[in-house]
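S1.2 Input.
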Amino acid sequence: MKTTPTSRIGRPSLGRRLACALAAAATLAFPLAGLAQEAAYPSKPIRMVLPFPPGGVTDLLARALGEKLSQRLGQPVIVDNKAGAGTVLASDLVARAPADGYTVLLAASSLGTAPLLYDKVSYDAVKSFAPITLVASVVHVLVVNPQQPFRNVAELVAYAKANPGKLNYSSTGTGTSTHLEGELFKSMAQTFMVHIPYKGSGPALTDLVAGQVQVMFDAWGSSGPFVKSGKLRALAVTTARRSQSVPELPTVAESGVPGFDAMPWLGLVAPAGTPQPVVDRLHREVVEILKEPEMRERFKGWGLDIVGNTPTEFASFIRRDIDQWAKVIQGAKIKAD
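S1.3 Output.
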């Protein structure tokens, strides 16, 4: 009997089989390359740029985080204070840095608001950076001079409506988060208070204690001691939820201005284009550091509430934050000094 050759119908040619094999190998190579890239990182010191001068709470946070990161990564993490131009100097420096994971920025809320406030900013808060994680929210409180008749947010709103323009509120400077929070409050509560900008929290709080101004939105880290000594009265926290640091204080939203939500923040970003495996490694290490009981206690003492979300969640948060403050800045026609 004559043997019939095996049919080749439906069988790929040798060339096609070779091409498929190469494609499969290439597909496997991508995650393997990513793993290799992550395993090799870091091989030299990392520079953490901070847009504030030495000595403040943000500087303490950066150095504590840098020390812990250095221990986990096996390379020095050098904190580089680059204060100036409303944090634009540091943000621009990192936006232009090589996208290799060796330069990162401990950014603040001003990362997104500065381009709305200053005429010449060369970076884009969304497109120029690769978000790593939202490290913490900075606890801000609504504080008032204790000689004033209002003891809660609802009473403050009622007083301001009955006495338009009679109340002055201080801020740490035009365009700062304390100023924007005041404008958001005025808009949502439909009240009018006169804005008095100062150069920093110190002189603003001094005049608030003295009664030269009556109201202020400020960081709990700086105003808390005055509240504890009875020199100021704290009415509420600015975030949508109560703070981990001062859980006894109600929110502005629950005590007089529904929907009010203002959350100054600190987060870690890298230049856009930083390899995802590197971003993932930094994210993983920082989140693990933030879980340590020692760090949680230190953050609480600094007036910071730990967050530690994913890069994707942080990116979405930045976009929402920019949208919120763009409306406030445009509505109040605010320009930075």
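S1.4 Remarks. Confidence is low (pLDDT under 50) at residues 1-10, 29-34.
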